[in-house]
Model the fold of this input.
Amino acid sequence: MNISKFVSNKFYGQKDIKKFEDCSKLISMGAVGSSSHNYSKHPKANLSQYDKCDVVGISINGNRKNRVSIESFVDELNLAIDS
Done:
């Protein structure tokens, strides 16, 4: 999965590009302005449909003001796990 056009933070962006390159789908949520928020705009992010062959990357923002908590996407994670 190519996320390079969604990368805004050059420091972490290169790491994330490498981290998600073998993923077929992505679960990503984050505070507005965070990398995770940008990644959530990818066409293969948060689709709520997963196949047993999917490799699913996960991105959540770190310790920042207005961060999105893990509880916000437990349902999406469970859909991926159940597949």
